[in-house]
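Q: what sequence does this backbone want?
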């Protein structure tokens, strides 16, 4: 990864986090709530108009087809995960993802099949947001991104770096890159279909879908990164992000 991108990203997220320190004892830091709720309304409308119906169509397609698309998209994401693993000094993750990339690209016919998974070699998921967390950058305030959904200031920067920096850009032709991006979009639609009832329950059946989305994202992300003690709050459900999905720290305020 070009060092300028890394330095710019760290500087930006550091500045943002410094400007939005979580108040002592606050499990959720959301100073941009008014704006976030408007973005959330936009995302729900986008989901209702496009993602939800497309996911329902994808869910009706045989898994023999959608599975190949998901495998292909997953394989395309591995170079970025390998780079982030290197930046995190995660030797095991780098080795696992590199072996998966080699096996699935060759024996798996370009990633359409998953022979690596068949022998117990599973993807080590990571992203630049996690890289920033490993480097000690705080999560900052909660934000919701148009089209991308819930995030934090740290993860928003990570998303932008992962989006605009593609290790394959110097290897694939422009046409192949378009196929790559198309596969990623298709995979997102397929995932929306796979988790349709769960997403629907949060977005369309919750009393406050914004608060519910925010809570679930923060709990799951902190649990995933193992960074629940990086700030001065104590999350009562940090050990189990699904212990009480309807708990809201703002309820008694």
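A:
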């Amino acid at each position: 990864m070009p060092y300028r991108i890394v330095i710019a990203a760290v500087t930006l997220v550091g500045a943002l986090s410094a400007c939005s320190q979580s108040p002592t004892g606050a499990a959720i830091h959301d100073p941009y709530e008014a704006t976030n709720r408007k973005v959330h309304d936009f995302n729900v409308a986008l989901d209702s108009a496009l993602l939800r119906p497309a996911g329902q169509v994808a869910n009706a397609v045989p898994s023999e087809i959608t599975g190949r698309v998901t495998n292909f998209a997953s394989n395309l994401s591995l170079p970025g995960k390998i780079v982030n693993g290197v930046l995190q000094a995660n030797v095991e993750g780098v080795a696992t993802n590199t072996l998966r990339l080699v096996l699935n690209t060759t024996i798996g016919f370009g990633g359409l099949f998953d022979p690596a998974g068949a022998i117990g070699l599973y993807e080590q998921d990571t992203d630049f947001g996690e890289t920033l967390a490993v480097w000690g950058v705080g999560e900052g305030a909660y934000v919701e991104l148009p089209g991308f959904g819930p995030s934090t200031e740290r993860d928003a920067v990570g998303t932008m770096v992962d989006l605009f920096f593609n290790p394959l850009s110097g290897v694939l032709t422009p046409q192949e890159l378009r196929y790559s991006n198309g596969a990623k979009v298709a995979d997102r639609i397929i995932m929306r279909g796979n988790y349709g009832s769960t997403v629907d329950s949060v977005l369309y059946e919750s009393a406050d879908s914004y608060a519910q989305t925010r809570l679930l994202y923060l709990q799951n992300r902190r649990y995933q990164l193992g960074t629940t003690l990086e700030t001065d709050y104590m999350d009562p459900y940090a050990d189990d992000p699904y212990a009480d999905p309807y708990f809201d720290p703002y309820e008694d305020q």
